[in-house]
Amino acid sequence: MGMKYLVTGGAGYVGGVCAAHLLEAGHEVVVLDDLSTGFRAGVPEGASFIEGRIQDAAQCLDSSYDGVLHFAASSQVGESVVNPEKYWRNNVGGTIELLAAMREAGVRKLVFSSTAATYGEPASVPITEAAVTAPTNPYGATKLAVDHMITSECAAHGLAAASLRYFNVAGAYGAYGERHDPESHLIPLVLQVALGKRDSISVYGDDYPTPDGTCVRDYIHVADLAEAHLLALDATKPGEHLICNLGNGNGFSVREVVETVRKVTGHPVPEIVAPRRGGDPAVLVASAQAAKDRLGWRPSRTDLAGIVSDAWEFAQTMQGEK
Hints:
By secondary structure, the chain is an alpha/beta fold. It has 10 helices and 14 strands. Helix 4 packs parallel to helix 5.
């Protein structure tokens, strides 16, 4: 039997793909998004849409909802450093309002889009949920604060919740893909070179202690990620806050990503080696063992060429829209 879910931030990249998966599974979906970074076209067909801020959740939540999937957040690490107040207001203040609205309406299930940025620079990789949380920027700090908030909400008020922590989401799902403006993620940036929108890609540091000297990062296909969110809805129990990392387990280097884009697109993709960026750890990779054990998650799109191919296909359709 289908359930009814509110998806906050469902006009964004990950939220939109998750909303599409919920609809395909036969659920009723209502998207709440203020379109500050999302796009109306990102809301899947078949979902109801309410244009509003997360603080407006009280006006749309009632007892007819079975749960909430919470993606609405400010999420640019660099911006969070120069404008932290925006991040505390939107990410923490907004979630306080959302939890209050859920309590008031009797909606007792939540899946939260957290981040592996809650760990900061890890002592060892792959990162497990037992790793010390020491965020290195306000974005990670606000997401960790929300995780703490959810833990106490579960303990005090019987909420059933899951926080999913992941690094880099990539790829596309049919008509739904990355269209951030400005773009800060590596795969879409490299694809912009292939599309002729950029002359070259900057590689920040090639002297890291990694196999090819460039940073190694975790990339997960957005469709695998969406499936984890649906599994988390089933796995949550009242009074329990389940925290799971989602990762590919081994990671890909910046140079591997650039080389894969060259192969997939047939474009030479000139690269420029630039100085290291402050605060960029050499390797960030998450362990997904807990998600496999607790959620039954089995990512099936772990091949970098496949992830890049899906993103490339979507990037070309976006080019046609401009």
